[in-house]
Amino acid sequence: MSPQSSASSPSTPAMLPAAPLDLLSDREKEHFTNVAKHMTQALLAATNFTQAMPWKLVYDKQFQIYRTELCGLGPCNVHAVTKLVAHIDEVTEALITTTTDAYKTMMSTLSSDFIDGAVLSNILTPTPENPFRYVGLKWAAFKSSTLSMAKDKDFVILEYVDLIEDAHGQKTAFRIMQSVDVPASLETAPGRYTREHVPLVGFIYYTTQKKGELRMTYTCNVDTKGDLPTWAANSAIQSHVEKCITKTLKYIEFQRIRNDNFELPQRVIPMSGETDACHVCEKKFSFYRHRYSCLKCAKYVCSNCYSLRTAAVPELGERKLKVCTVCVIQVRQARRGSHDLKKEQFDAAVTSVAAQQKRQSLDDVLNSVRHLIATDYKLFSSQSPNAA
Length: 388
Known about the structure:
By secondary structure, the chain is an alpha+beta fold. It has helices at residues 26-47, 88-95, 100-110, 230-257, 325-336, 343-351, 353-365, 367-375, 380-383, and strands at 7-12, 56-60, 64-67, 78-85, 114-124, 134-142, 153-165, 171-179, 189-196, 201-207, 213-220, 262-263, 292-293, 300-301, 306-313, 317-324. The strands form 3 sheets. Strands 1, 2, 3, 4, 5, 6, 7, 8, 9, 10 and 11 form an 11-stranded mixed β-sheet that branches. A 3-stranded mixed β-sheet has the order 12-15-16. Strands 13-14 form a two-stranded antiparallel sheet. A hairpin with a 3-residue loop joins strand 2 and strand 3 (64-67). The longest helix is centred in the middle third of the chain and has 28 residues, at 230-257. The two termini are 23 Å apart. 36% of the residues are buried.
């Protein structure tokens, strides 16, 4: 997936379990969450309409490609735009991989050069309050060029996924990645791979006024090494972008086919009518906060804590039913095989005050990113008359 890389020391992965162990200290988790914040802010600054670099449209057919020659002023020099028909919640869900098996499935679809990969650490995982927020460390190895005698290459990548809704109801999701140095507890041993570096790269998805349609952008840094004429550099960039976008859309479609599968009983008996608070967010029901019953667990939730899901009901077939956020997450975990997110650990995290405080401190680190997107971010390509 890396459009540009630079070689350093050789390395190879240690034997890693399918579900990553929690090997990072609280201080290390806070450090990587801060790195996730800063790399996201850098990409947003480079593509924000109010402060973007001078981007130039160089390709405008099935998708658009913008370039900027002022690479030294920003972390990226290529920006591509396309559109797709999908629900942004489903797209964001597809981007989150919390286990090694799920990550390998994703990467095998995204790159034919992918050899192996692993989830090194899940720093922030989805919760009922933030069901699409994820920060994690990943390891990935790729084949070297067929014309090169060099060793195959590997990367350690920090990944941040989130979904944010602004005051006008527009939703923006993103998956942003960058190489990082990791502590010795996660470091891989010397061997067959050469450690290389992935510069900042990001995918942003956002809703439009047309129902069911999303815009997808891909922003990266492509090193043309300055020895290619403009037409040749643009051709190389077009080839890279087309391959990346096509395979990303293929992966999203593959995940949509494997959409959440709810098996519900034909009849669900709601809990006692005396319940006066949402079982997810624990806020009290009122005239403005209506009460609904989850058709899977039968507990009462508010309008902010349920979603309509397609469910198979015996003798009735498929129906669109209200399912609470907790049940949605549990089904997603089962589908991913997320051993690191077992229900016992989830319940322990919810009931532990210390765990809640630690989680909240990491969430607070990312609040500035969420605030920027919700209030002051306008993607420059979405404001252009040439936008897809």
